[in-house]
Amino acid sequence: MRQLSDDLYLHTILANAPGYPLIWNRFLLELTRQLGFDSGALLVTDLNDYGNSRFLFSAHISKEYQAQYEDKLNRLDHFNHYVSQHPQRVFCNQNLPADPAAETKDAFFAPDQQNYRFGVALACTRHHALSLLLNRRNAFNVTEQQVATRLLETTLPILQDAMHKEQRHKINSQLLHHLGDHFDGYIIVDHELNILFSDPIYTAFISQLDCVHIAGNRFGMKNPAMEQRLLSLIANNQEVGSVHSQCQSCQISLIPIASLKNLYQWECYMEGFILTFTHEKDKNPALERLMHLHSLSRCEAVCALHFMKNPSIPDIASHTYRSQETVRNHIKHTMQKMNVHSQAELMKKLLTLASL
Description:
Blueprint: H1 2-16, H2 21-35, E1 39-46, E2 54-59, H3 63-71, H4 78-84, E3 91-92, E4 116-125, E5 128-136, H5 142-179, E6 185-189, E7 195-198, H6 200-206, E8 212-215, E9 218-221, H7 224-235, E10 251-256, E11 273-278, H8 285-294, H9 298-309, H10 313-320, H11 324-337, H12 343-354
Antiparallel strand pairs: 1-2, 1-5, 3-4, 4-5, 6-7, 6-11, 8-9, 10-11
């Protein structure tokens, strides 16, 4: 009964940890207390370069040691390397066979000689893992290993959910600050539009948009030219406030994630790109009235609203990603359908309609 109570308390801490570093540290403190460890840490590890392993949260590990680890010791931490390569499995270093190809055990200087360790990892992206490492000075007996393994296995699903919420909280808060406006959803993609991070709620919204499609773990745009333009922007590491307005159901913004600040060591996404999705601001009652009252196509209505804001054909073409000739034709057809004979009359009628 006591063990069940301890487990529930640990899970309750995790449920409240996302967004609060002190609560994450409290989780590690409680976990090390329950299992009789001397220290613990949550790390993000680059599977291609172990020298990029970084602390997210820790318990009973000094700042000086963390700095040494991130500077050099992480390259020698073969236990973390092994754990990171085998996500969802609990390991104790006492049970791992010696690896003749690896450095000697003494190559890694654990904090305060805490050489007996447990570890478990969660997959983050194809190239990064999130590791939970627990350390102590004394060797484990069989019963201690069984208890630690059971608790870590039962805690792993709750930890994974809490980590996902932590990532979402950090990115959401930074996006709101960066954009200075709301957004309806976002995903994080790599240079080839493979999805690195997504939220099921956002994905459900994005999947319903007219201009995009999500197949498996890849994002794409239904217009091949727009997809090529997006890939070109990503290749040039550009930040763009509006990627396109072709379908007029949404606005897509491109943000290199490295341009965001204070992501608290979430290096696993630092080389990725955020695509935010917002309902197109042109999709408003005036747009619907133009289509309904004057039988305008959606493209004609969108160009008309852009014309009302700024009657420059080149500017309209630039903002809607159409050729100037296409815009001229849309404006011409709009004038015919609205029964006006000059652009001045068109402007007056559009302003009147917008004020209704």
